Amino acid sequence: MTYQIRPVNADEWSQVKELRLAALADPAAPVAFLDTLEWAAERPDSHWQERTKDASLGGSTRQFIAEDAEGRWAGTVVVLVERAGEDDFFGNPVHTPQAQLVNVFVRPEHRGGGLTERLFRAGMEWAWSLEEPLVGRVRLFVHKNNPRAAGFYRKFGFIPTGHVIDSDHEMEIARA
């Protein structure tokens, strides 16, 4: 199947919401994402509109989607830019500009054909292309009970940093 990998547009908030809810309904969600279907479903439309607008601009966030030939969204990845001197998503100080990959998801019927790799590569290429801030590393967190995801990330050169969060369940892995 042919897919176009592209950033979201600000007016596509309802598709962003639907894809996120689908990701959180996936059986792997408890070890793949930090938020829950219940939490996301309760968010007002204004939350999704603002989130999508920010992700479409590519300032501190960029969301990529995979769209099939019929316009259906098959998967996504989000890149968060973390600037030195600011706090990261978890409230920890950022010392070196970095990017964090989050919300990696491909619908089950689109898995197994390399789409996750293409989305992941698009997110990484965008992060490394930033000139301001110049990203010194790309990181993400993987649940200790998600060896499939950890193996996928190792293929891209990500290694454990030793930093853990969420009662030692989420391990930081990074690539410089």
Automatic annotation (TrEMBL):
PANTHER family: AMINOALKYLPHOSPHONATE N-ACETYLTRANSFERASE-RELATED-RELATED. Keywords: Acyltransferase, Transferase. Signal peptide: none annotated. InterPro entries: Acyl_CoA_acyltransferase (IPR016181), Bact_Acetyltransf (IPR050832), GNAT_dom (IPR000182). CDD domains: NAT_SF. Residues 3-176 form the N-acetyltransferase domain. It comes from the Bacteria. This is GNAT family N-acetyltransferase. Pfam families: Acetyltransf_1.
